[in-house]
Amino acid sequence: MNKKKKSALHKAGKWPYLFCLPFLSAYFLFSMFPMLYSLKISFYDWNGFGTKTFVGIKNYLDLFTKDPLFLKSLGNTIILMAFSTPITVLLGLGVAYLLFDIGRGKRIYQTVNFFPYITTPVAIGFIFSYLFDWQSGYVNKLLIWLGALNEPFFWLGSEIASKVIIVIMIVWRYLGYYMTIYLAAMTSISSEVYEAAAVDGASNFKIFTKITVPMLRNTTRFLIITSLIGGLQMFEEPKLLFSGWASLGNGQTGGPGHTALTTVWKFFNDAFSQDSRLGYGSAMAYTLFVIIMLFSVVGFRLSRGKDGKGE
């Protein structure tokens, strides 16, 4: 019997690997192999068609010594991320807390706040380009009607204003997602904790700051880390904003003075433009990968708190 059982287990042990084989094959072919090949060509000077020329770490050195636009794009990305992440996290927490105990119309408010997250990026870029358009934008029309402006302001032609608009785009788009995550986390908090605090005479503000916020620490940590990763990969918002009407206004990549040029946008232009430099673009992609890893580790350690246990 033992031999028969061992034989049956031996035969059954092959099936999990066979079922996993299609996924593993597809993952290696369409994900792992391109990543490894991209690492290889980052050490070459290659445009994707001609002969590869091995240059070692020259592409990596050129990023920091001969390409000021890379450092500019990296600085822009960090600035946009530094402003958008805390605003979105705080607003998401606040809106979730306000909607958590609301009675009538709760589903409607949640749905309305979540709509921007499921809106296509192209539509979002179109909406904000139209709102802040110099000639026909509703923002200028409203400010002129209120008397705040005497003439239309070229929002997308200003370096500071263009950054502010991108931050508003990011907050508006992801606020519903953050709200939903916080609402889901709040449902896991036992109602007995709130009842005990109410019996002790704690105010709503103290309940929020002393109970809700500390018990949502792990959720906040998750949102911060994912925000850092997503923020450093920012591409759609500035790229789509400076298309259409906006591109007619400044006529250059990255907005006025390249103030909206992000690292991924820079990578896209260098790797897939008419003068394609795939090797250089691959080096940029792996440099960004290392930067994302560093930010993620630092963000995780900072969000753990002084106790170092993250509880």
Please give a structural write-up.
- Residues 74-299 form the ABC transmembrane type-1 domain.
- It is found in: Cell membrane.
- Pfam families: BPD_transp_1 (PF00528).
- By secondary structure, the protein is an all-alpha fold.
- The protein has 2 domains: 1-41; 58-303, Orthogonal Bundle (MetI-like fold).
- Helix content is 73%, strand content 1%.
- The chain has 15 helices and 2 strands.
- It has helices at 2-12, 14-41, 58-65, 68-100, 106-118, 121-131, 138-146, 159-186, 191-199, 204-215, 217-232, 236-241, 245-250, 263-272, 278-303, and strands spanning 44-45, 53-54.
- It has a two-stranded antiparallel sheet.
- A hairpin with a 7-residue loop joins strand 1 (44-45) and strand 2.
- The chain is globular.
Descriptive labels:
MetI-like, MetI-like fold, 2 domains, two-stranded antiparallel ribbon, ABC_transporter_permease, 311 residues, mainly alpha, globular, 15 helices, 2 strands, single chain
